[in-house]
């Protein structure tokens, strides 16, 4: 990041690093050195520490003694907990989604499905995972319950990390069910069928995970963040 950008706000840094994690430009296990990030964004280590603490609350970052911060790499047990909570929240929210579902919701969610499918066809796995997570978050926004939406957004972000490391082609492929199929059920008001669809969908994604580690080089922070995504 060039010096001409000047000092960047803590909020802008938080959003930039969070987006890099969710977009999988920063991967689970990548270390986040305070001094390197401070130089990258032109701010003090204190500012970076505040951002990393925020990301820790989101569970996207973990702080390890003598190692510092790194992007969270959920364990198999944590993955099971994430998907169990997603089933509880998302399946349980289907009746509220159906009650509030409008043609505008269908239009916006279908647009996300199209972007997810296009990314999958193009072989852009990271984008497909991101669009899928956005679909689930926006679906929960239909409930008009901000706490539910926020919880599912956090769980979907964690799921994205899990799928980025342990997922297979089935984790984002049609074997797990097309989201358009769910939209048809919601539009028809088929609550029980939609609940079963969501439960099966999430269980299939979890079952497709393969928990094996793969080596990865340390990220180059000087080229990771695009100038256009952060305002000075």
TrEMBL record:
<keyword id="KW-0805">Transcription regulation</keyword>
<protein>
    <submittedName>
        <fullName>GntR family transcriptional regulator</fullName>
    </submittedName>
</protein>
<dbReference type="InterPro" id="IPR036388">
    <property type="entry name" value="WH-like_DNA-bd_sf"/>
</dbReference>
<dbReference type="InterPro" id="IPR000524">
    <property type="entry name" value="Tscrpt_reg_HTH_GntR"/>
</dbReference>
<dbReference type="Pfam" id="PF00392">
    <property type="entry name" value="GntR"/>
</dbReference>
<feature type="domain" description="HTH gntR-type">
    <location>
        <begin position="7"/>
        <end position="74"/>
    </location>
</feature>
<dbReference type="InterPro" id="IPR036390">
    <property type="entry name" value="WH_DNA-bd_sf"/>
</dbReference>
<dbReference type="Pfam" id="PF07729">
    <property type="entry name" value="FCD"/>
</dbReference>
<keyword id="KW-0238">DNA-binding</keyword>
<dbReference type="InterPro" id="IPR011711">
    <property type="entry name" value="GntR_C"/>
</dbReference>
<dbReference type="InterPro" id="IPR008920">
    <property type="entry name" value="TF_FadR/GntR_C"/>
</dbReference>
<keyword id="KW-0804">Transcription</keyword>
